[in-house]
TrEMBL record:
CDD domains referenced in this protein's UniProt entry, alphabetically: PHD_UBR7, UBR-box_UBR7
Gene it is expressed from: UBR7
Upper taxonomic lineage: Eukaryota, Metazoa, Chordata, Craniata, Vertebrata
Region (Disordered): 1-20, 231-267
Gene source species: Apteryx mantelli (North Island brown kiwi)
InterPro entries: UBR7 (IPR040204), UBR7-like_UBR-box (IPR047506), Znf_FYVE_PHD (IPR011011), Znf_RING/FYVE/PHD (IPR013083), Znf_UBR (IPR003126)
UniProt name for this protein: E3 ubiquitin-protein ligase UBR7 isoform X1
Stored PROSITE patterns: ZF_UBR
Basic and acidic residues compositional bias, start-end: 231-250
Skewed-composition ranges (Polar residues): 252-264
Zinc finger (UBR-type) in chain: 49-121
UBR-type domain boundaries: 49-121
Record keywords, A-Z: Metal-binding, Zinc, Zinc-finger
Superkingdom as given in the UniProt entry: Eukaryota
Length: 416
């Protein structure tokens, strides 16, 4: 995972010199785990050796933009993880985290002076790719770099799952809930684009944090509603009227000449329930439409209607991925984790399978010896809080080799 961990730092421009840092083993272990977790999150599902171009538009992958090859003012281009290492290793890269449905641009017509070392044969452009200002290192509605040297306000950036741009928590039109309380965020512009989601928001969304309401409401917290009629004071009683007005608008927008029988809306997900459109049902109730981002819990996507009409609407709005739980960053990260666990196990299993019984026993013994002895050896350092240096590890392996020689000379297949 070393290479990947280094890669995760590429965007930040970490210099990572050849110097060996001197730290205690406990720190090394803790830090490695953190780095590995972080790297796994971004790089987990991506191939770091082969250019992903041959896979076509990859469902989700770690992406980079190279400001050396395609600086601002030029056409935006995105490159895959493997290309970021192999073809742009010394260049200034923007780390774009992960994006969906993207095909690697490395070396195509957008690159004037660069040929891809991994897969030089590429089409001129990838017409299906979507680009935004992230490809020039600018984020959010405020179009700022990240990290931003001129921004002193500590603020977490949150990625919108529709446009995949990143936003300052304070530029979402609403105060985001605690980060552990929601799973996905949809930005203001994308909520305008996907206005049907407001009907779901009343049922599913995690409420934005509220400014304390001065009305003497009996323990009920009203959300900060910044509706189109912002100026009107929202009193509790009039809040209902307000909702009804919004609802009226919604019905106008969405109720196409109603297809009378429910059978035109077959349910795919829940078989037992009546085959009705969940969206139409929600739209017949009261809900609010605001000019804010929205925040969603895990598994909310599976609650979206998948009737024929809705699927058609998703594709018209180019948001078909919304009904796909596997599109989430979490699903991608989990895939990376399980892929790596398979990777880790495989070499040993492959070796074992190719050996005869005696060789297998020998290898397992040796492995167990090594593991026990190395653990014991390292524990001494951890207990004393002293640092492990390269020489120490070298020393251990030299010792281990000579002990092993002694042992195997004595008796052949003895497992200590
Ligand atoms: Zn590539
Ligand atoms: Zn480059
Ligand atoms: Zn390349
Ligand atoms: Zn911003
Ligand atoms: Zn968005
Ligand atoms: Zn529907």
């Amino acid at each position: 995972m070393e290479a990947a961990a280094e890669g995760a730092e590429q965007g930040g421009g970490g210099a990572g010199g050849p110097e060996e840092p001197v730290v205690s083993l406990a720190e090394v272990l803790a830090e490695n785990e953190e780095l590995e977790k972080e790297a796994r999150a971004v790089l987990g599902g991506s191939d770091h050796e082969r250019c992903s171009y041959s896979q076509g538009a990859v469902k989700r992958q770690a992406l980079y933009a190279c400001s050396t090859c395609t600086p601002a003012g030029e056409e935006p281009a995105g490159i895959c993880l493997a290309c970021s290492y192999e073809c742009h290793g010394t260049h200034k890269l923007f780390e774009l985290y992960t994006k969906r449905n993207f095909r690697c641009d490395c070396g195509n017509s957008k690159f004037k002076n660069l040929q891809c070392k991994l897969l030089p044969e590429k089409g001129k452009v990838n017409s299906g790719n979507k680009y935004n200002d992230n490809f020039f290192g600018l984020y959010c509605t405020c179009k700022r770099p990240y990290p931003d040297p001129e921004d002193e306000i500590p603020d977490e950036m949150i990625q919108c799952i529709v446009c995949e741009d990143w936003f300052h928590g304070r530029h979402l039109g609403a105060v985001p809930p605690e980060s552990g309380d929601f799973h996905e965020m949809i930005c203001q512009a994308c909520m305008k684009h996907c206005h049907f989601l407001w009907a779901y928001a009343s049922q599913l969304a995690v409420p934005a944090l509220t400014k304390v309401n001065s009305l003497e409401d009996k323990g009920i917290i009203l959300n900060v509603e910044e509706s189109e009629e912002q100026k009107k004071e929202i009193k509790k009683e009039s809040g209902v009227e307000h909702q009804e007005k919004e609802e009226g608008k919604q019905i106008e927008q969405f109720n196409e000449p109603s297809t009378s029988s429910g059978s035109s809306c077959p349910e795919i997900v829940t078989k037992s329930e009546d085959p009705v459109c969940k969206l139409k049902e929600l739209q017949s109730k009261q809900f609010l439409k605001k000019d804010t981002a929205t925040f969603w819990p895990s598994n909310w996507r599976s609650k979206l209607c998948t009737c024929e009409d809705c699927l058609k609407m998703y594709s018209e709005l180019e948001v078909q991925f919304l009904t796909d739980e596997c599109d989430t960053v979490l699903a991608y990260e989990n895939k990376g984790t399980s892929d790596q666990e398979t990777d880790r196990r495989d070499p040993l299993m492959d070796t074992l399978n190719s050996m005869n019984r005696v060789q297998q026993v020998e290898l397992i013994c040796e492995y167990n010896d090594l593991k026990t002895e190395l653990t014991d050896y390292l524990r001494r350092f951890a207990d004393e809080g002293t640092v492990v240096k390269r020489e120490d590890i070298q020393h251990f392996f030299e010792e281990f080799q000579s002990r092993k020689r002694r042992r195997t000379n004595r008796m052949q297949y003895y497992c200590s």
